[in-house]
Automatic annotation (TrEMBL):
Binds 1 Mg(2+) ion per subunit. The magnesium is bound as Mg-PRPP. This is Uracil phosphoribosyltransferase. GO terms for molecular function: uracil phosphoribosyltransferase activity. Uracil binds at I195, G200, D201, A202. Allosterically activated by GTP. 5-phospho-alpha-D-ribose 1-diphosphate binds at R78, R103, D130, P131, M132, L133, A134, T135, G136, G137, S138, D201. CDD domains: PRTases_typeI. It catalyses: UMP + diphosphate = 5-phospho-alpha-D-ribose 1-diphosphate + uracil. Residues 5-209 form the Phosphoribosyltransferase domain. Its EC number is 2.4.2.9. InterPro entries: PRTase-like, PRTase_dom, Upp_B, UPRT, UPRTase/APRTase.
Length: 210
């Protein structure tokens, strides 16, 4: 498994505002979108492309277009939805599938409550969006789900990750082709399974408490 942790002052600046408990939901949503677009630049480094020939006003030349089958972007509901616009801005031809997961806050086990994905993911490159990688239960379940449907490789974009979650995913995926792209690798989890220093509950901060 490859792990890429962002190291860029623009990302650190936006993350600082995102972490600040005074940041209101509209700003939190805007910053989440901007951060995803920056992280997606790294996450799509190995996106499959096909060579094409084009005519410029001056001459013919070769370039590339996003290859077939199209990449699949999978936000994990609810908080991952806040990352979708930022991702498809960079990858407008991608298809989008949805996975609804909620973490049981006592056991930290993920419960899958919705799924809307193509039945066959053979040969597909998948990009999973989830702002928080805490214990790794939710992301681990999503990755297993996608490989069980035949996905070729999975890249997960998370705004924040905890070392415990990264270790769990590393052990779980073995030699399957998985890449994690993180805005920050934080210090640890607290006793409630929250990332420290973290940003709190990403879904609540994006959408308000339910
Ligand atoms: C949050 C977050 C992740 C998960 C991370 O979702 O968006 O999906 O927790 O925790 P884990 O790594 O320990 O599984 P939550 O279950 O709170 O649902 P929400 O997105 O609807 O708020
Ligand atoms: N889910 C969140 O939204 N935040 C955390 O810190 C951990 C799990």
């Amino acid at each position: 498994m490859r792990v890429h942790v962002a190291d860029h002052p623009l990302i650190t600046h936006k993350l600082t505002v995102l972490r600040d408990q005074r940041t209101p939901s509209p700003v939190f949503r805007q910053l989440t979108e901007e951060l995803v677009t920056l992280l997606a630049y790294e996450a799509t480094r190995n996106v499959r492309v096909e060579e094409i020939e084009i005519q410029t006003p001056v001459t013919t030349t070769t370039g590339v277009k996003i290859g077939e089958p199209r990449p699949l972007v999978v936000p994990i509901l609810r908080a991952g939805l806040g990352m979708l616009d930022g991702m498809v801005k960079l990858l407008p031809t991608a298809e989008v599938g949805f996975l609804g997961m909620a973490r049981d806050e006592e056991t930290f086990e993920p419960v899958t409550y919705a799924e809307r994905l193509p039945a066959d993911l053979s040969d597909r490159q998948c990009f999973v969006l989830d702002p928080m990688l805490a214990t790794g239960g939710s992301l681990g379940a999503a990755i297993d789900f996608l490989f069980a449907r035949g996905a070729q490789d999975v890249t997960a974009i998370c705004i924040l990750g905890a070392p415990e979650g990264v270790a769990k995913i590393r052990e779980q995926v073995g030699d399957r082709d998985v890449t994690l792209v993180l805005g920050s690798l934080d210090e640890r989890l607290n006793e409630k399974g929250y990332i420290v220093p973290g940003l709190g509950d990403a879904g609540d901060r994006l959408y308000g408490t339910v």
